[in-house]
Amino acid sequence: MRSRFAYFVSVALSLSFAASTQAADPPQPMPDTPLAVKAVRAFPELKFRRPVLLTNAGDGTNRIFVCSQPGKIFVFPNKPDVEEADTFLDWEKKTIYKDEEFEEGILGLAFHPKFKTNGEFFMYYTEVPHISVISRFKVSKSDPNKADPASEEQILRIPQPYWNHNGGTICFGPDGYLYIGLGDGGAGNDPHKNGQNPKTMLGKILRIDVDHKDAGKNYAIPKDNPWAGQAGAAPEAFAMGIRNTWRMSFDRKTGTLWQADVGQDLWEEINIITKGGNYGWNLREGLHKFKDGSDAKPELIEPVWEYHHTIGKSITGGVVYRGKKVPELDGCYLYGDFVSGKLWGLKYDEKAKKVAVNYLLQGDNLPVMTYGEDESGEVYFTTPFGQIFTFAKSQ
Predict the structure, then answer these.
(1) Which domains does the chain carry?
(2) Assessment of whether the complete model's pTM goes beyond 0.90
């Protein structure tokens, strides 16, 4: 198996080659605005193998949970000097992860809004061969820092044609439904045209009701899902035209659903997801016609922001900052780039429906794997080298 460093270098080189084979387009028209906010190490005594997700349980305990992509979930108290994390769930024997197929493994974790009383949480992981699974679990009755592995109830099983573009974000919306971010199934160019095919769940964002069950399912279809009841369409779908969601989150203040869609040849994009929206893949990449596709469909929704591969080559979507420690970031959508290591905060005017400013934050050009929040809304990000970072005002 290759080292994590070798893995990162190989991804960067492959993405650089993909960009270099295309004609260079101009970068974004709005220049970045430097902001006196920097990334700082959080929990310096802790390191995890491929920490692909960070979240909290929303139960008042202020604990932080980290998913290690090869198959473990860890939990630890939200204290700067914490020295050790407990293993919340060991799922390495049940999931599949390979360094050379690095978009599988544990990819998503979401705690039920009523986790404090019902003890339920949900996990997105990969089974052999290339099957994405969303399962319900319960916490141990005897230890709040342990999951009950025997409690698994598989909710959804989604076959994937390839190992990449699995998406993996699962999160609960303000409406109490579970949202699932899927990619187009993988390879390149969306060869099966899943993004624009309403029959498949791939290339979509799904929305399901995990508190009820329809006949033959371990979940229910919300009656107001945009394609519910339509023949020849996946009723679970909430939005379509997605390449590879990495990642998506709800603004805890406004309820807006933000999504970062990883690009292919030239453009990375940020979307605000609305019910029934079609976000263009593979007819378009960002605001631009993709290869030989047609972008003439009037219903295609444009991203609120994009950036060219001269700036970064693999977007990592984040969250809207609603914490208290760094007021300069309030209302900013925090995101970064896995290859260039750049960090930004996007200020979006939802009433005017346009970006007001794109702040450039200070960092050490580290590849950003994922963003996450603690219970108070403070934001963290992780790197493939195992560290966790947070944000602070620059002196």
Answers:
(1) 4-393 (2.120.10.30)
(2) yes
